[in-house]
Amino acid sequence: MLVYMDKKILTLCMVYDDKRILLGMKKRGFGMGRWNGFGGKVEQGESIEEAARRELKEEAGIVAHNIKKRGVLTLIGETEIPLKVRLFSVHSFTGEPVETEEVNPQWFSHADIPYEAMWPDDKYWLPKILAGKNVEGVFHFKDTDTILKMEVKEIRVCVKGSDMLKIFAIYKPKGLTSNAVLNRLRRAAHTKKIGHAGTLDPLAEGVLVVGVGREATKQLAKEVAKEKEYHASLTLGISSTTDDEEGEKTIHADYDIPTSKDIEKILDQFTGNILQTPPSYSAIKINGQEAYKRVRKGEKVLMKPREVMIKSIFLECYDWPHVTLKVVTGPGVYIRSLARDIGTVLGTGAYLSGLVRTRVGSWTSKNALSLAEAEAKCIE
Predict the structure, then answer these.
(1) pTM for this entry
(2) Interior CA angle at 242 toward 238 and 351, to 5°?
(3) Radius of gyration of the chain (CA)
């Protein structure tokens, strides 16, 4: 089953019982005229399993009761980006298969599977799936009908708990909490032993280093201690109760608009070992409870300053009231606090209007996985 698309993660769901298998004839688009299982792209914001269920319903009109991970196919063309296809099986479902605009589903006996009208790789891995095996396959294609070389082997799909030792970087999208990312991975990996090496706020995006498995999470402390690199966007002239975009805003007045030289001059005050007061809307615990929870209940909290290391700050861009900084820090630095304090020193007020973490130690945004790719890694 060779597919060339702009998405790296795809799903393929095989619906069958002891005697029959449900296949779909593609009626239009790429793959038209071939029989196949049901699947497609993993959309932004959904898990791989959610994508498999959605595609099955959209293409065949049925809702899976039980869906099982069965392995992965890597499909490599001569010029196209390699694709990962996550395999699933379904043995019970609600509804009756119906023809849609894209696919015409039909039942076949196991003995009459039309391999000659399917993708050329299907005949090498599908019999193993029907025999109850989980598979991993790598196929190199010359074109859509010609396999240059291949490797197919039986695997265990889910490796649990202490058997895992995986540390990798994810590019966390804006809008998700770091804990929401971990929950997605817990479901994919079937383990509670997952942690990260330094949270990113929901409104921030970028590199989030995670460990999957008991041994990996033990090693995350080493990752936490590594230096971090950020590109921070500040808005001057306005302050926020949360020091970022989320809070209530206060517009300041009676100040001189600073020049680029004014900003560069005061940045030296924030480099080296400095005392920084964390935001009151933070997860730092005060008497056993997170500060942000106390603030939301109406309590007044006193955040104690603590020593942190900011290794460098560079003014990348300035167009009043917008400032972009490149910041390299040690552990424990709040970029929200840095934005707030810069605004205080300038006399304009400021809040953090955008944040991208581009590096944690040697982990960079270039080698970070998407959330869908990370979920796939957890089931390998």
Answers:
(1) 0.60
(2) 30
(3) 26
Please, are residues 88 and 13 in contact by the beta-carbon 8 Å criterion? yes
pLDDT in tens, 166-211: 788 999 999 999 999 999 888 877 788 899 998 899 999 999 999 9
What is the rounded distance in angstroms from the CA atom of residue 232 to the CA atom of residue 203? 12
Same fold for the domain at 161-226+363-378 and the one at 228-360? Answer: yes
Distances (CA, A) of 342 to 67, 242, 244, 288: 52, 15, 13, 30
The architecture of the domain spanning 9-154 is: Alpha-Beta Complex (3.90)
CA–CA separation, 345 vs 350, rounded Å?
10
The distance from CA 110 to its chain's CA centroid, rounded to whole angstroms, is: 38
- Tokens, residue 158: 């889910």
pLDDT mean over 150-169: 64
What is the sign of the dihedral through the CA atoms of 201, 207, 211 and 212?
A: positive
Q: Report the CATH number of the 228-360 domain.
A: 3.30.2350.10
- Answer yes or no: 254 catalytic: no
- In angstroms, rounded to a whole number, what is the distance separating the alpha carbons of residues 223 and 208? 10
Hey, where are the domains in the chain? 9-154, 161-226+363-378, 228-360
Phi first, then psi: what are they for 249, rounded to 5°?
-100, 145
Distance of CA 97 to the CA centre of its chain: 33
Query: Does CATH place domain 161-226+363-378 in 3.30.2350.10?
Result: yes
Catalytic residue selected from 121, 122, 201, 244: 201
Q: Is the pLDDT of residue 163 over 70?
A: no
Q: Where are the alpha helices (DSSP H) in 227-378?
A: 260-267, 291-296, 335-346, 371-378
What digits encode the pLDDT tens for the residues 241-282?
999 999 999 999 999 999 999 999 999 999 999 999 999 888
H/E segment holding residue 198: none
The helix (run of H) or strand (run of E) holding residue 53 is: helix 48-60
Q: What is the mean pLDDT of the segment spanning 219-226? A: 87
| Residue pLDDT, tens place only, 88-115 | 999 999 999 999 888 999 999 999 999 9
Which tokens sit at 193? 């032993």
Residue 300 to residues 6, 290, 294, 306, 333, Cα–Cα distance (Å): 50, 13, 8, 19, 22
